[in-house]
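Batch job 17 of 40 flagged for manual review because the log was empty.
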Amino acid sequence: MILRKSNSSEAGELTRISIKAFGTDSLVGGAENDGPPGYDSEEWHMKMMEENHLFTYFDDDNTIIGGAVLFGKEELYVGRIFIDPKYFLRGYGKALMETIEKNFQAKTIKLDTPIWNGRTNQFYKKCGYIETGRDSENVYFEKVKE
């Protein structure tokens, strides 16, 4: 698996994958067509790419299977990850998180996910992230690398 900074030719495909991926949230308690800010906007993905926050995730055949929006260096914040639903339940999400952890030098990685989304809450726990707090909307997770 390869994770690298996105380029402008990938923004459209990443937007399509993001729409499909976050569209499945309605199956686990989310509202229909109500993903995170910018999930359905190619302009937003281009902005994230221009600011060096958007990353493209490829399988071994160089097919785009998802993406990530990442912030920071010393402390990395995972703004979101998304995998094309046709690759769900095949280990790609876990492999993406492992790739992020391996490729970034940050000692601490943080993220949050909606409180209603049992799928992602369980996923991040499975990836070794520890819940550090919650509010009325989100659960906050952290992993400290040794």
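Reviewer: the log was empty due to a logging misconfiguration, but the result itself is present. The radius of gyration is 14 Å. Unflagging and moving on to job 18.
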